[in-house]
């Protein structure tokens, strides 16, 4: 009996000691906090030490109703796109057409302004030999009074790729992941709408996952990429890497470029965000070379519009189109949400529990 009492006493003594230690640690922390706070207040703060206050990360985040589940989902609505009348730009209107066009159809268009010349069947165009294709392009140049170096392109429909219903499923998660990492969720939505909206797939360059990360970039931010495991397929891990890339490389490098050109900027403005996305896609070094072609002196949407026509060795059509696609996809998603993806006009399939 005495032995049991001794054991019980030791146990109680141990917990009492732990309690006392916790109290002492808390007391020490309070004293330290007061000391350092008082010391900091005693020191004058120079203007250079004052960090400018930027807009809240969630200032453009709104709630939208999921057309099937009826749950509230986060969504970024950028009013600037309408304010700058981006919906009237011929390049943006063109890509919106492509996003809603079946792959069996193609639009023959003039490359620099995306003016649509003719709509044709994709198989029909592909069946023509090179000479016939070249003769057709020459006839378009002649008809529209174009120089021989003006590009006449044939762009097939990408409705299958820009699957906005599927992309919508990931926006809420992407927005939350970027905010959690202290990054504007606008970037998450822009990437998710155009990089790999329909399914996980690998690009010709080797980028993979919802955020289309290259192996080296993924590994740089702690993701495992080897023969047995590719964490770029993990949405949250991939979102962390993508947001870290934007926060630590794309935004700082874009600011450096603008500083070198003596251009002032506001990180919350649309043109700045689009320029950051060009750095995300093509690399800041290639963006800088493209800007040097026309040496902008002011930060505004005209800088982006001029970038659409600037070409270098590693900044060509795909790079020029990148921000055009973002604007088009943002507008398309706005429209899809307004119309409830068509479910507001017809009763949902009772067997379909969620968007697939």
Question: Care to give the gist of this entry?
Answer:
The chain is mainly alpha-helical.
Report what the structure shows:
By secondary structure, the protein is mainly alpha-helical. The chain folds into 2 domains: 61-83 and 161-342, Lysozyme, CATH 1.10.530.10; 102-156, no CATH class. The protein has 13 helices and 5 strands. The chain has helices at 2-42, 80-83, 90-99, 122-126, 130-144, 164-180, 185-194, 215-220, 235-260, 270-282, 284-292, 301-307, 317-338, and strands spanning 61-65, 72-76, 105-110, 115-121, 152-156. The chain has a 3-stranded antiparallel β-sheet. A two-stranded antiparallel sheet has the order 1-2. A hairpin with a 6-residue loop joins strand 1 (61-65) and strand 2 (72-76). Helix 3 crosses helix 13 and helix 6 (164-180) packs antiparallel against helix 7 (185-194). The longest helix has 41 residues, at 2-42. The N and C termini lie far apart (68 Å). The model is unreliable at 25-54 and 352-356 (pLDDT under 50).
